[in-house]
């Protein structure tokens, strides 16, 4: 369903139809930005990656061949851009992660929640990049095993191995941080 | 998709890989996983509990929304409609129309003058051209060129 709808919108977006362009941005920019944010831990860099990903998409639209889902292709481009940036900087800081507040929580709970979330975000970024990507795609973004494997260009078995190691690493890292 | 029977070892691997929520498992293994968890809850209790605590931490990570300014930049960087893009480089309609009108008027005026000129006027005009080109006189050049 989404596949054929994508094709129609891609054709119209390539011709410059503003409604189709907006629909593609609204459908996919959040997912791309989320993957980049989880992988890079830097809001500005994640936005840059998202913009670069969409620029490449717009260039590719006129010659688009529906061999893969547009979503898969888009996430793969974003992931590769993240890998490039991570290779350029091995040391990651968490200073620029966005502040988020939940109005349902009281200040003490909110602080505790914020600390927990930041610890998880930091632990994900500290994982080896392919493990972080697998975990982000499946556990945070809700991609199916097949989709995530296709985005990462690995087999489902390899994806499972990455996911299992990611969860083990995450648990160990969080236990180390909390001292429990 | 046909259901696949799984072993206790495979179920432990699924819990370790995907967490405590059976809905996150590969589709063809969900039914068997549920059946095994129901049949032998104690065997998997510790693994499920450990996985669930990590699942809860992951679920607490908030979703990322696209900020309005980024959305605007993404849309702005997209291809523009072909018509609008072409028109950007096209001259306004009145410029070629004006040029054609001027050319027609000039041709008409030129032809009108040529038709009304006399042989004496033409001779005078030719002398002026010769003088402008640096020759002394039109008549002298003609005499020099005349056969002896």
Automatic annotation (TrEMBL), chain A:
BP GO terms, sorted: DNA-templated transcription initiation
Keyword Oxidoreductase: no
InterPro entries recorded: RNA_pol_sigma-70-like, RNA_pol_sigma-70_dom, RNA_pol_sigma70_ECF_CS, RNA_pol_sigma70_r2, RNA_pol_sigma70_r4_t2, RNA_pol_sigma_r2, RNA_pol_sigma_r3/r4-like, WH-like_DNA-bd_sf
Keywords in alphabetical order: DNA-binding, Sigma factor, Transcription, Transcription regulation
KW Nucleus (keyword) present: no
PANTHER family hit by this protein: RNA POLYMERASE ECF-TYPE SIGMA FACTO, RNA POLYMERASE SIGMA FACTOR HI_1459-RELATED
Name of the molecule in the record: RNA polymerase sigma factor
Lineage: Bacteria, Pseudomonadati, Pseudomonadota, Alphaproteobacteria, Hyphomonadales
From TrEMBL, chain B:
Ranges that cross the membrane: 93-114
Keyword annotations: Membrane, Transmembrane, Transmembrane helix
Keyword Membrane: yes
Protein name listed in UniProt: Uncharacterized protein
Lineage, broadest ranks: Bacteria, Pseudomonadati, Pseudomonadota, Alphaproteobacteria, Hyphomonadales
